[in-house]
Amino acid sequence: MIRAKDIQANLAPEFPSIIKHMVPSNVTGGFCLNLGRKFCDAHLQEEDTTIFLEGEGGKSYPTKYLARKSGLSGGWRCFAIDHNLKGGDIVVFHLVNPTTFKVYIARVNGSQNENGALGLLKLEACVKPMNCKNLSKGGEEMKNQVLKPLLLDNPEENSEKNMVIHVTDLGTRSVHSENESEDLGFEITDGIRLSETVVDFKEVKSFNDFDILVNGLVINCELSKRLQIKYYELCCSQKSFLHEHLLDGLNCKLVAGMLAETINIADAIRASKLTTSQNDFATWENTLKSFQGLGMNVGFLLARLGRLVTLSDKSKRVKVATLERVNAEMERRSLEAKLLEVKETMNRLDFEIETLEMNSENLGRVFEKMATAHW
């Protein structure tokens, strides 16, 4: 960040600039870049347009600027790949005219090219400051105006790198460069794309109208067709997007994984039996509660799961009680057998006692005779 601040400090101060820290979603996967609402409202046009990014090598890249999203879409991917941008790199965007950014890169691991970048930034500002918000109001003044390029310290490099930018009509721009490239269009090439509008679920009349929006991106491509249909059915059952209130800034692939797992759990709940283990129920419940903590609308699944767990507990209690009854019966029979054995012992002892009592008098006489007998 210090390196980026140094770069920004050497830029012509009459032109606005902004520093962006690259995160994975900027340079991989979706390749989307948000420039920040405040900066865009202050310096960029209010309608969608083409914005050019000029790298340090002088090549110009056309990108699609979406005013409502305050971000760059088609074309940014090409720029990021060509410049080998990585997560952690810091990029300085210098708005040198209403539709052109001069771009400088501070690498996360450092680079000798950064020293060259700072050398190139001892610039002589050659264009008057302009308020891009008022561009439409001053259209006549802007017609046929030639904006001189930024001059480098080295005149030879200056003659090779510079290009002349002509504003030939209001809101249009032509660039003459040996490396002119084509507009890559609105959609991001891997299927994730920026959404032009925010759709309320009430406006979704069929599956064909159904898009999964996360942080302004349509991520339908992250789910299979089957999962998309199942998720659409779940949303229809609740008459709302289940992910509508997710925390801002969650990774698109993480959200797609959450949606897929929610669908899987919903299917598992509907396929569950009385014999389903308590461990499975507990796993589903913990997962859904974690999703709910992130803002997913899964309360209806948790409610259904809770009722099924209660019924399952009752069913399992019947089985447990039945087993306990069987064990109690076996214990009763065992005790009855022991009781019978005790009764038999008591009867035997009673008979023995009666016999001894009948012979007790004879026993006394025999004892006395033996005791008094001569030695």
Automatic annotation (TrEMBL):
GO CC terms in record: nucleus
Gene3D superfamilies the UniProt entry points to: DNA-binding pseudobarrel domain (2.40.330.10)
Molecular-function GO terms, alphabetical: DNA binding
Coiled coil: 318-359
Pfam families from the UniProt entry: B3
SUPFAM superfamilies: DNA-binding pseudobarrel domain (SSF101936)
PANTHER family: B3 DOMAIN-CONTAINING PROTEIN OS01G0234100 (PTHR31391:SF101), B3 DOMAIN-CONTAINING PROTEIN OS11G0197600-RELATED (PTHR31391)
Descriptive protein name: B3 DOMAIN-CONTAINING PROTEIN
Organism: Salix koriyanagi
